[in-house]
Amino acid sequence: QVQLVESGGGLVQAGGSLRLSCAASGGIMDLNTVGWYRQPPGKQRDLVARIDTGGSKTYADSVKGRFTISRDNAKNTVYLRMNSLKPEDTDVYYCNANIRAGSVVRNYWGQGTQVTVSS
Asked: Which long-range contacts (CB under 8 A, 24 or more apart) does 46-53 make?
């Protein structure tokens, strides 16, 4: 059974850094495009950063120059390095991955990890 597990969230002061991890497990044959999203209370999930199988990256304008997405294919893990954090970065961060497991290809969501940035 495919699972996505996020980790690395927490409380940090403005200007600080965190690194989020998204680890996929459970019969993974291909870990394709993976994205990090965040969702403020009562609002939709918005894309923060995305990386495809070739390593091409996409960032939201609000995080360009501060956040870096990367992947370790050997570990089926994608990271989000967040520097120069701001209070407005406070949200629950979710990982979404397109995964092939057996003959099935579909998108999976993780459970989310809370990031809180204090001013």
From this structure: 48/80, 48/93, 49/80, 51/78
pLDDT in tens, 13-29: 999 999 999 999 998 99
Which burial class, exposed, middle or buried, applies to 64 when counting CB atoms under 10 A from its CB (0-12, 13-18, 19+)? exposed
Q: What percent of the chain has pLDDT over 90?
A: 95
Distance, CA of 65 to CA of 67 (rounded, Å): 6
| 6: pLDDT strictly greater than 90 | yes
Please give the DSSP secondary-structure letter assigned to residue 67: E
Helix (H) or strand (E) segment spanning residue 21: strand 18-25
